[in-house]
Amino acid sequence: MNSLLEFFPLLVFVGAYYFADIFTATAAAIAASIVQVAVFWFRDRTVKKSHLITLVVIIVFGGLTLVLQDETFIKWKFTVVSCLFGAVIFGSQFIGEKTLVERMMGAAMELPKFVWRRANAAMGSLMMLEGIVNIYVLYNYDTETWFNIKFYGMTAATLVFMLMLGFYLARYIEDENEAQPVNQEADPIKEKEGQ
After folding, report:
1. What is the dihedral of CA 78, 34, 49, 12, to 10 degrees?
2. Beta carbons within 10 angstroms of residue 184's beta carbon
């Protein structure tokens, strides 16, 4: 249920785009984002900052798209959100004790600080790169191509990145797990030698 709710505005946008056009999809995505935030609020009595930021950006850029009938604004929304989150992720390298990636994933695994910092920098770089690619595509290709690259190409790129990041993090988890039994076996030997 949570996963469906997380991607609800995106799914609504894609569905409306296929059945109508980008302007209908934009209006539907604005409505879906409002519904998403409302559901989170009524269910949990709290809303993630990322959802609020995305809601504000889609209302502003989606609103401009509808009022001015210019699809460039809704296309820019992806770059604004990506670069904004990328900047926040990079900022967490220097502000606070933990990076944003460590705060999101740290409860599930323990890793050395330098690994979290590398993962954080990689995630921030991905967000920035996707934002820049989006600008290039929106000014050099038609709407159909932009849609396909944004929703299929960038989704695939993000999934590949997350898979690679998972393999990278797993190396350090395995190293820690392998090192632990050696230390545990060494303790009884030391105890015997001490006797």
Report:
1. -40
2. 9
Count CB neighbours of 70 within 10 A: 12
* Weakest mean pLDDT among 92-96, 129-133, 145-149, 176-180: 176-180
Q: What is the mean pLDDT of residues 147-157?
A: 94
Contact between residue 53 and residue 80 where contact means Cβ atoms under 8 Å apart: no
- Reading the block at residue 87, the tokens are 């900047």
- Scan for tokens 């502000």, then name that residue: 95
- Distance of alpha carbon 126 from alpha carbon 138, whole angstroms: 18
pLDDT of residue 5: 84
Reported as a single tens digit per residue, the pLDDT across 105-130 is 887 888 899 999 999 999 999 999 99
Query: What is the DSSP secondary-structure string of 39-54?
Result: HHHHHHS---HHHHHH
* CB-based contacts of 167, cutoff 8 Å, min separation 6: none
* CA 47/CA 125 separation, integer angstroms: 26
CA 162/CA 17 separation, integer angstroms? 27
Could you identify the residue written with the tokens 């930021």? 53
Higher per-residue pLDDT: 158 or 2: 158
